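Reposting from the mailing list since nobody answered there.

I have sequence plus structure tokens for a pair of proteins and want to know whether others read the tokens the same way I do. The first protein:
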Amino acid sequence: YGLQLTAQLLDGKLRGEAEWGLSDADVALGDQIGRQRDQARRFKIATSPFGVNLAAEYQRVGRDFISLANPTLVRDRDTVLLSAGTTLGFTTLNLGYHWGRDNVRNDENLPRVTQRGPTVNFGLNVPEYPSFAVTYTRSEQDSQHVNQSTGIIPMESITDTVTAGVSYNRSQWNIFVNTGFTLQDFKKGLQDTENANLSVGFGFNPSPSFSITPGYTLNRQKNRSTKTVTFTQVPTLTTTWTIVPERIVLHSQTSFNETKNEGATSTSAFSELLRVTWHMKDLIRNYAEPALSLRFNYNQNKAGAGFASPDQWGIFLVFDLFARLPILPATWANSFLSVPSQGTTKTGVPPGTTAKP
């Protein structure tokens, strides 16, 4: 069951949202737990004085809350989000602060982890020129009432992350360069680490029927206690070729993943995917969009000199069908709603839904 309320005051300068959901489900028939009922709720208020967008949001999702509309919804969590952003000419500036914790019932038999920290983002977007963005994020984490006899280690850490990226888009090609650095300082628990990464990508579209996208990622991770350094590189190549417009498409994706440790053996993995797809949407107009694909997969893994697992390959015939099959008639909610639904909301309940399914 779900209910959402929205309001606008002062000619839309002050906006508010309130959402509530209730689930009553038996996720495992035949067990001793039986049916479980729980709630989720969300409140948000936003305003835009003097060209500055301000927002505050609170979310609470119960431990046993089940969402059919959003199965990946993170449960058992309280979250507070604060944000402020503005645009000045070609520049944007956004500030944010997040706070969250799990174990919303504060069950002392279970650990409770709290995370909090700020985010700062600056962007520069000048037409016909490369765009630039830089972001700084800090996350402080600590844990409470951890029963170490169960093998769970209490955590207390500070993680600082800085990322920067430059991208340039043209009609037939684009390029981007992203880099980042993360420092994890553990007061309790694991050992301190630092991580640096660099990603470069290039896309080329000489015609509407062909595109090729090579990419390369390099990652360096260091354990600051043992001084161990691990390098990981991942080159990729993706191509798409439309053989027959809107009918037959050839797609390939190649990647190579290599990891090296100082003073230790290296591991590598090579994968290749080749797929030919026949789109048959014209066969069933205005009802479904079927597609038939012939896919070839190949994987090769190596772990150090002389250690290699058998190559793996497979040929698959895949049939995909996107069918417009409404579960309920299009007018089922007219008796309850004054405005049409706008999709699934953050707590996984269709907005404005007040009717029982």
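The second protein, same order (residues first, tokens after):
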Amino acid sequence: QLKKLILHHAEPMLKQGRLSTLLHWLKAIPEENLQNDPWPNFWFGQCQLAINPFQAREYFCNSFRLFSVAEDRVSSLMAWTGIIDSYVFAWSSFLDVDPWIEKFDDLMVNPPDLPPQIEARVVLGIFKILLWRKPDRSDLPDWSDRLKQMVFLSNDKIFRLFAGGDLLYYHSFLGDFQLAGLILENIAADCDDTDLPPMARIYWLCMQSIYEYLLGDHQACLRTVEQATEIQNQSGVTIFDQRIYAQGLASALCHNDNSSIAHYRAKTKGFDTASILEKSFQNYLHSLFHSHQKDYSAAREHAQLSWQLAEKAGSPFFSAIISLHRARIEFELGAVDQFRDWLEKARSHTFGIESMTFLADLFQAWNDLTNGDETAADHVLSKALKRAARHQYGNFPGWNNEMMQTICARALEQEIEVDYVQSLIRKRDLAPPDAASTPLNWPWPIRIHTLGRFKIEIDGADIPRSRKQENRPWDLLKLLIAAGPKGLKIDQAVEALAPERERKSAYNVYSIALHRLRQRLGEDKSLTTKQGKLHLNRDVCWVDAWNFMELSKSASRKNSSLNNSEHQHAALDKAITLYQGPFGGGHVDDPSLLSYTEQLSRRYILTIIARAKLAEEILDWDKAIEIFERGLERLPVHEPFYRNQMYCYGQIGYTDGVRDTFKRCQDQLERLVETVPTAETKHLFKKLCPS
């Protein structure tokens, strides 16, 4: 009678989280009854699952054996789900789970009629064990679809949290964030029910944090980790604590969140476990940390141990993740052959999972780009980013800002998935590479155009300007730009904005102009003051004039790393494109602004000459003619450009070109400045066209 009473109340007590009471009752059942009755074994296993999954497995195996002897196929499948849960909860080794997958296949040759609740547990069991042990099995997507329908239709919150968590994990790593988001939206509210068992809630939050980590939402991931930690501390259920802390650490490493790195590193560093896969995961985290610190030798050691343990644990999916990480480490260490080997090993274990294929292609493109094979890099990068854009990837294991800065810059330069790349840069707040490597379509928060015009863009949208607006904030911005990246002395700004006012009154004018400029730029970090100077924050503000000057100087400078290369040509071409005309559109009257306008004009002349000279050195006279023509578009009365163009036409024997250029020189000088060509220009013309 006692046994019947206990077994009758076992399931509701388990759902209420009364594990200790149920376990105490079960221990009152005589030992001889346990040897012959499958149900006490089953409930013993359920009670031990969150405490000791290995011991729970022994009870479930006894239960399965006794049910099988009784030819109770339905109950056998119930016990089978407990065995599978013990493997997943232990997260140790899946190598010896293969016979249990075979037993499932045998039982399902002629599947019994299952009650809906048991059917749901069985579908969940086969789905998650295939995910961890055999992700390449062709029927895994079918089990996923079947489980998804059950989850959406079920009223069992505990089942929804466990099954929904596994589905969330699966679709997140597949890269199907749209479906993963739908699962999250459908189930997340169930986790707020404090009457549910803590283990179910913690398990769901663990999977939710993985989804947010892969999505690239760092703050959401940290909030979820803290919520799970709070439930763990209140309930004493700590079976998932290291996996929870690991997500906090992994996300912090990807986002360079040093305080969170220190916090979660301390929680995971000294953890001791008998679980093989847990040890593998720990070493993977250590490797990620050392990679973040650029200690790649230590990172390699931990990655090697992590991979060996993952292989020993029989988790091909995790082995693939570690292989990709190891490939990146070998790349950083300059081990070319090892990089290729590990990348190929990872590719052989991607199992058609798009996020893994994306990572393999991304690392290959990074390797090609770094080694100067831009054609190969662009081909692979196009494939990788097309896949990433389709799924809107925002993060990946081992995210590296330096790598992604270069990757994104190259993609924008080659116009590969521009919208996605720009959105990724904004989302991850990526800083641009150096001036020469940053494409003009890099999505700066604030873009300030001053050459040939005066226009401000914030997040790609123009700031509307009205005649009713006070001009002083814009005047202050022009003064700040003319002062250059080193900053504008505040005293100089005060004097320039209100030259006829007394000091105190003039400073008030400056303060008001500064306040209104901050409002118009809409970015708190856009303007900073330091040591008596006002600065534009170059992390958020791009200025065409500054970029123009830096590109021109770096490409023209002797012994520059850009010299004698295609990059030097590209930098000068980019500088020429940037110069759309005089500073502020020519509408300036402040002496410092006039001086800066002249400085930019002189730099433009030097840029044109430098670029044309590169063309002349390789006897590309047509290119040189084109360059001087571009120079004349902006400076139509700069006579040396006409002479140089005439000379280039002379080198290819095109006298009509010489005549046309000289005639245009005459016309432009007469029309715009009411003068005639100099004797030097006339002499060159007669020399090239003596007839």
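Reply #1 (J.P.):
I read it the same way you do. The longest strand covers residues 446-449.
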